[in-house]
Design brief:
With 301 residues, the chain is an all-alpha fold. The protein has helices at residues 17-23, 28-49, 51-62, 66-94, 96-115, 120-148, 154-182, 186-195, 198-210, 215-221, 225-235, 255-260, 262-287, 289-296.
Length: 301
């Protein structure tokens, strides 16, 4: 669970790291974080949605059955489900930064392995690995941006990160159209299409490794407010000041306590349920678009 972002200092006790972050003006630091986190969402969308075109080409080249084609198309989604649950929890235990870098590396490995897949089984496994990285990037990138943000701009900044997903969804099909019209052949087209997903992830690995750990996580979960403030001042060129009091590590609910809390359970079901209904239509239609278009116009090439 994300560290609490609503902590407010009490009179006479000075300012904590959380207080300073909540009231800090938007700066180059926040904009860099939007780009670094947003590239992760861009990569997620690109890798997930180009598979519709790639799978259609692979199915023809390798003479795949409908079931096999479905595995190629859906393997990354399955991996993303496992990755989000697993890496989300790991990020709560060992910190956001380590997971933030690791999932980008996993996405690079999965994309490259997919591009060089020699057969159906290898491709499905590579897509599963890619999905693990994608699933891990979703919660960590969003939480990172949320925990860095100030109170006034948090919604806008997190929204900008998520908007990069839409850009990835647009760029993927455009690249597919360009490759298909270039005349390089379907066999090479799908490999290039899948391999290009490694480029944006590779571009931010170094930048992510240089970012400080989430200050709210350090200050509230581990009580390391001094380290959090020092890291932030280095990364933000001194925009955020030194705190005048220490944060107190916040209590954390275990899974049983969380699920027995009616308020938290309603919040979980409301947000996750809405997201599930949205993704059911969004991912289903997008991933199956080539097959849908084929049914609409059976004579299309």
């Amino acid at each position: 669970m994300p560290a609490d972002s609503g902590d407010v200092s009490r009179p006479g006790q000075g300012q904590t790291v959380t207080d300073l972050l909540n009231e800090a003006p938007a700066s180059k630091f926040h904009h860099r974080t939007v780009i670094i986190s947003g590239v992760g969402f861009f990569t997620d969308a690109y890798d997930l949605f180009v598979i519709g075109t790639a799978a259609a080409l692979v199915a023809i080249q390798w003479h795949l059955s409908t079931l096999q084609t479905s595995w190629v198309t859906g393997a990354a989604i399955l991996g993303a489900f496992v990755g989000a649950f697993t890496f989300g929890r790991i990020a709560d235990v060992i910190g956001r930064k380590k997971v933030y870098v690791s999932v980008a590396v996993i996405m690079i490995f999965g994309a490259v392995a997919s591009a060089f897949a020699p057969d159906f089984v290898f491709l499905v496994i590579a897509r599963l690995v890619l999905g693990l990285g994608i699933g891990g990037d979703y919660p960590v990138s969003a939480v990172f941006m949320s925990e860095y943000s100030n109170r006034q701009d948090r919604g806008r900044l997190v929204g900008l990160v998520f908007s990069m997903q839409a850009l990835g969804l647009i760029v993927g099909p455009l690249i597919a159209l360009l490759l298909l019209s270039s005349g390089i052949g379907d066999g090479l087209t799908w490999r290039i299409l899948l391999g290009l997903g490694a480029i944006p992830a590779a571009a931010v690995v170094y930048l992510r490794s240089k970012m400080p750990e989430s200050p709210r996580y350090l200050a509230q979960v581990h009580g390391e407010s001094v380290r959090a403030a020092q890291d932030l001042r280095l990364f933000s060129d001194g925009v955020i000041a030194q705190p005048t009091s220490s944060s107190i590590a916040s209590g954390r609910l275990n899974l049983r306590s969380f699920l027995s809390d009616r308020r938290m359970l309603k919040l979980l079901l409301g947000t996750a349920g809405a997201w599930f209904l949205f993704d059911y239509a969004y991912y289903g239609n997008t991933l199956s678009l080539p097959a849908i278009l084929k049914e609409v116009n059976p004579t299309a090439p």
